[in-house]
Amino acid sequence: MTSKNVMDAAVMDRPLSINIKKVSVPEPKEDEVLVKIHCIGICGSDVHYYEHGKIGRYEVKEPIILGHELSGEVVEIGKDVTNVSVGNRVAIEPGVTCGRCDYCKSGRYNLCPDVVFMATPPVDGAFAEYITIRSDFVFTLPDEISFEEGALLEPLSVGIHAMKRGKVGPGDRIFISGLGPIGLLTIEAAKMVGVTEIYASDVVPLRREKALEMGATAVFDPTQSNIQKELLKVCSEGVSVVVETSGNQYAISETVKIVNRGGRVVLVGLPLVSDIPFDVPHLIDSEIDIVGIFRYANTYPIAISALQKSKSKLEEVITHKFALKDTKEAVELARTEKDKSIKVMIYTN
Ligand SMILES: [Zn+2]
Ligand SMILES: [Zn+2]
Predict the structure, then answer these.
(1) How sure is the predictor about 2, in pLDDT bands with cuts at 50, 70 and 90?
(2) What separation in Å is there between the alpha carbon of 56 and the centre of ligand 2?
(3) In a designed cystine with 119, which of 66, 102, 312, 328 is the match (CB 3.0 to 4.6 A)?
(4) What 8-state DSSP symbol labels residue 43?
């Protein structure tokens, strides 16, 4: 039970403007829990809404609280909640689905048309002290897993989903294009499914260094080298899977040339343009499978048990830490210092 009725929240009134405001502490419904937030990562989407006020068809029309990568402690539960208790340390999956449509029932709930996803207009996110959420989207963290790792389960989930969609397993050799937080965490996801040869590329030196620290076999600078040629020098057998996270249109085009015949290409990064050329005869002749991914589904329990068993390097991606009151500075830093920052984390209490 919280004694407070009001809390601080970082509210974005309009693009490039975030102010700390007093808002009411939400009250959990019967099937919800109230979580005192510990930390929240800033996502590329938060920065994009802050800068442009919209992403595709989602537009910020009313003031909104951003943030959707979070962990915290359960402080109150609704009367029907049985899966978590007050005092539990938890990670929160930020999209609540209907549970009733064909997508939800078939296990592909990330495609649910009625999903209520945090920090996607008009739904508020979590740059605040407390949040309520339906209890089936709350996952208890064992002692071995830190709050920071708990918050990073959200971007890590995208990497895990990429492994599932790309049917990646221990025998695969993988190439990851783009080493922002999602690309770096995809290294971790690849290790989780048993991949031992992981190649990667990014234009930013800091990101390539981090990739090596996190276990990449070799890294490349796409502005300095012909990746296909350089890759074959260190990996003569070539790669069976390419995961594209940069969203760069040229990098997307290249994926089908980098992957081996019979390989799989997983497209994660969203490009700014809709028409991107592929060498289609080559794609057909080589039986290359291309899949897209949207968020993730059923990844939190897998990630928690995998992290519990092995020492992860997830926290390597955190480069900066801020207090909730400094959310605007934190988002500004994420926006303007892309060469020096990877994951910026906000601490709310
Ligand atoms: Zn995110
Ligand atoms: Zn649904």
Answers:
(1) low
(2) 21
(3) 66
(4) P
Kindly give the distance from the C-alpha atom of residue 158 to the centroid of ligand 1, in angstroms, as a whole number: 9
Do 239 and 337 share a structural domain?
no
Q: How far is it, in rounded angstroms, from Cα 124 to Cα 130?
A: 12
Q: What is the pLDDT of residues 294-315, one digit of tens each?
A: 999 999 999 999 999 888 889 9
29-53, pLDDT tens digit by residue? 999 999 999 999 999 999 999 999 9
- C-alpha 329/C-alpha 322 separation (Å) is 8
Q: Which residues of 312-340 are buried (b: 16+ CB within 10 A; e: fewer)?
A: bbbebbbbbebebebbbebbbbbbeeeee
Q: Which residues contact 252 (CB under 8 A, 6 or more apart)?
A: 244, 267, 269, 271, 276
| Dist. CA 285 → ligand 1 center (Å) | 36
Domain shared by 218 and 264, yes or no: yes
Q: Which domain holds residue 81?
A: 6-140+313-347
Question: What separation in Å is there between the alpha carbon of 33 and the centre of ligand 2?
Answer: 21
**Helix 300-309 and helix 181-192: axis angle, to 10°?**
70
**DSSP 8-state secondary structure symbol assigned to residue 341:** -
Residue 264 sits in the same domain as residue 202: yes
**Which residue, 186, 181, 176, 252, is CA-closest to 220?**
176
Phi/psi of residue 114, each to 5°?
A: -105, 20
C-alpha to C-alpha distance for 73 and 253, rounded to whole angstroms: 44
User: Judging by beta carbons within 10 Å of its beta carbon (0-12, 13-18, 19+), is residue 57 exposed, middle or buried?
Assistant: exposed
% helix, strand, coil for the chain, step of 5? 30, 30, 40
What is the distance between the alpha carbons of residues 41 and 291, in angstroms, rounded to a whole number? 27
Within a domain: residue 305? no
Using the mean position of ligand 1's atoms as its centre, give its distance from the Cα of residue 159 in Å.
11
Name the residues around ion ligand 1, CB cutoff 5 A. 43
